[in-house]
Write a structure and sequence with these properties.
Layout: H1 2-23, E1 26-34, E2 43-50, E3 53-63, E4 68-75, E5 77-80, E6 83-86
Antiparallel strand pairs: 1-2, 2-3, 3-4, 5-6
Length: 90
Amino acid sequence: MLKRFLQVVVVFFVVFSSAFVFASEIKELSREERGSGRVRPSAADRVLCVDGLKVFQTIAFGYGDGTGAAVSNVQLYEEKNGKVVPVHCE
């Protein structure tokens, strides 16, 4: 029983410690809130730096039954020397 408990503790430790490592590699570069919700804005646009690459994210609040959120992520690309390549964060 104790052996099984220790195995579960080790698994949780590995899973949660790896989640913090991935979360630390995401930075918010800019944010613009729009709309006029009662408590919070109805939408937010953000540019994120994820693993050194720029990602555009839109979050829209209050759709559906009024309590949900719609999230859209798009990786940004640019043209360099006639080729389309991902945009890197500075």
